[in-house]
Amino acid sequence: MALHDLLIAPFSEFAFMRRALIACIAISLSAGPIGSFLVLRRMSLMGDAMSHAVLPGVALGFLFFGLDLWSMALGGLVASLAVALLAGVVSRVTPLKEDTSLAGFYLISIASGVLIISLHGSNVDLMHILFGSLLGVDDRSLLLVAGAATLTLFAFAVIYRPLVVECFDPGFLRVAAGGRSGSAIGGPGAVAHLVFLVLVVVNLVAGMQALGTLMSVGLLLLPAAAARLWAGSVGGLMLTTSGIAMAASLLGLVLSYHVNAPSGPAIVLVAGFFYIASLAFGQRGGLVRRYLPRRHLAH
Amino acid sequence: MNVAHLKHVHPAPMHVAAEGPAAISVCNLTVAYNRHPAVHHLTGQFREGSLTALCGPNGGGKSSLLKAIVGLAPIASGHVDFAADRKRAIAYLPQVVEVDRGFPLKVLDVADLGHWRRAGAFGRLTAAHRKQSLAALAAVGLQGLEQRPIEALSVGQFQRLLFARLIVEDAPIILLDEPFNAIDQRTTEDLLRLVVGWSVEGRTVVAAIHDLDMARRAFPEALLIAREPIAWGAARDVLDDAHLARARALAEGWLENAPVCEVPA
């Protein structure tokens, strides 16, 4: 009975809890492929920077149209993509490496975003946009999240093979698929990479209402980081990631409900707990396996 | 159009490769980095079905020549031509493979990559494709390891796997950049046997190697370059003491501030 009160009652009693849960489960479906490839492509930091870059776009949408979902989403989409592409350009045409230019852009983004919102709204608005709000998930934002997850899964079916090869051996694809155009730009690998970047941003923006702009990357990234310590194949990694993300969503929402805290940090904290537990107990490179190895085999 | 590249030494008199239809024709090719030529006014042909050892000192332009042929290095002047329909059919093994060896793929998956030209991003891998992949893995001595994750392979096993992928690619032209570096003797011998076999099957094979004894023993033809082309032809003639001494002398004289090369492009 107590367990029912703890885990089930919030959802059976309140429609906003059910909506928040469905939104988070949709993001968890996306998190499988998106998070896995952020980790495999060593783009975790990139994902983090892009999530910060969503903010000024959302803020501009908020500035001109108030708390309107579509204008804020579109603003966030444009701003985040712009930063991802600009950081890539800067690292190519200047001596700065990509991590430095990413850090530069996301500091500028978050500072300008917070400034714009706090000048023209209340602190409550700012908290909701940054960290998500259980009550904020209305029907339109549910549609946005579900649409993003659907788009992500279908698009991944298309770009999956080139993306895997581009991660594993980019040089191979340049020769095998490029003919002798002589340029490293273009080709199926580059297209797959670009589509992937767009999908990352779409999901970051879609998670804005339920998780907040700062926290939505957490539900994409932390489950994948945890799953990397368990799964041994790309497919297994994606499935494990989605599973962990769903568990974190459920438990995080319950936590958020019972302690009356913003939903984003609660969910990300639970995902973080799974990550730390995996660091300790993961079958592939976890610390317990590393420092308490089983006896070696005969041959 | 091209900025004139920096001169260093006048081109050596050209040594013509043996007769036969050309698979790859290199015409007055110069590849330059920051205007310094890595390959300087190279002209000649790799015949269909030839097996050529590409020799020369480090920094002598071996990798640059192979990269220019596959289109990965910028050509400063001159051009590379292929027999009809061959330009998209080159299998290339780079010296430093920028592979993520921790990536969660299985051995068989990597061999399957060799089907890319036929299957592409969306094509189905048929049972026949699979059979070819399995046969290639058996040919390089990796049978039984098909389902292993690649992170479990040793350096030598991984090189065998890359050779299996080359077999699956089934390309008429195969370019290998120092394929036997850091590989033990037995693996080297196994892989060298495959390379010679490709030539017997009529494929055109060029391999950059440092082991001159191996070049004389296993390769009918050789091209010796030290930025400047030195000799191109039968391996025994190319890799003689006079040519090698000249390569060494050239390698010692590479300078930073060279004048602009005036040889017509």
Automatic annotation (TrEMBL), chain A:
Signal peptide: none annotated. Its main location: membrane. Keywords: Membrane, Transmembrane, Transmembrane helix, Transport. It holds the Pfam family ABC-3. The chain crosses the membrane at residues 20-40, 73-90, 102-121, 141-163, 184-205, 211-230, 237-257, 263-282. It is found in: Cell membrane; Membrane. It is a multi-pass membrane protein. The keyword Transport applies. Belongs to the ABC-3 integral membrane protein family. This is Metal ABC transporter permease.
Automatic annotation (TrEMBL), chain B:
It comes from Dongia sedimenti. The keyword Transport applies. Keywords: ATP-binding, Ion transport, Nucleotide-binding, Transport, Zinc, Zinc transport. Residues 24-251 form the ABC transporter domain. Belongs to the ABC transporter superfamily. This is ABC transporter ATP-binding protein. Gene3D superfamilies: P-loop containing nucleotide triphosphate hydrolases (3.40.50.300). Pfam families: ABC_tran (PF00005). One of its GO terms (molecular function) is ATP binding. It comes from the Bacteria. InterPro entries: AAA+_ATPase (IPR003593), ABC_transporter-like_ATP-bd (IPR003439), ABC_transporter-like_CS (IPR017871), Metal_Ion_Import_ABC (IPR050153), P-loop_NTPase (IPR027417). CDD domains: ABC_Metallic_Cations.
